[in-house]
Every structure is written in structure tokens, then in C-alpha cells.
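User: Sequence in, structure out. Go.
Assistant: Echoing your sequence, followed by the C-alpha cells.
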Amino acid sequence: MEFYDVIKKRKSVRKYKKDPIPDDVLDRILEAGRIAPSAKNIQPWHFIVIKDPDTKKKIAEASRNQMFMADADVILAGCILEKEAWARMGGYMSAGPVDLTIALEHMILAAAREGLGTCWIGAFVEQDVKKILNVPDDVTVLALTPIGYPAEEPKDRGRKPVSEIISYDSW
């Protein structure tokens, strides 16, 4: 699939088949995140691949009962290693959330290229997720995504036209 087709095809999937993801496919998705760029090339991230059915159920419950997540073959938890992240992005903030987002988006696009569905999950109780996954206190769980074969084609929700989101040379 051509790159721009992958970008256009990718949509949030909230209904998954029970079909397992082959190991080589999952490895390619994880590799896409591993090679993602980060500030100062620090790579301040850690990803947890969740396959255990009971753990997936607990994560879905901790994600405001978004139980569709547990139906996906995998749930991926993206974590920021705050102590490692470059702390002065823009002169005022940690690059950790941006770095993790880039890496996770690489994986999400790779999953779309492989015919898999994902859904960026930001609605979760971080302390509950950290407890379930034994995440250290000094690590931040930024996002989750189920990864699996879509059970249905997601609806197109539309996007704003370019004229509303882009300007040239100044605001």
C-alpha cells in the first residue's frame, strides 16, 4: 500500500475479530516504533505488549470500561521514561510526550499498512493501568491502543479543510 493511502485508510477501530496477529507482523509494527525519531535521539519510551486475556480485560475496565479493547489480539501501552526524556523542548517542556506520540503513531501507521486496526486510547485511569502492568512510579503511561483485525469498516468522520488549519508565513 502506498504511504498516502495508508494515512488516508487509517481510522479508529472499535470492533475487532478474534484473529491472532502473526508474530512477524507484530514484530514489524514494533520495529516501526523502535526506529522512530526522538529529541536528541534519547528514545525515552517503553512499550508493553499485552496479550493475556485477563490483563486485557482489566486494562479495558481501567479505560473507562471501553471493553472493545479486550477483543483486539493485542493492547499496546506506550510509556514515557520521564527521567530520560529531553527536558527543554521549546525551552519549557519535556519532549517525552511528543517523542512517545511519534513512536506510537509510527506503530499505528505500520499496523494500518498490515491491514490491522487501532484506536488511540487516552481515556484511562493511569494509576490503575500502572498497577495492572507493574509500571514504575517514575514512568508515565501516556496512551494505549488495541491492535487487531477490524470486524467492520469504521465510518469516515471527515476532516476540516486545509484552508481552516493551515496558514503561510504568519498566523
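User: And one key feature?
Assistant: The radius of gyration is 17 Å.
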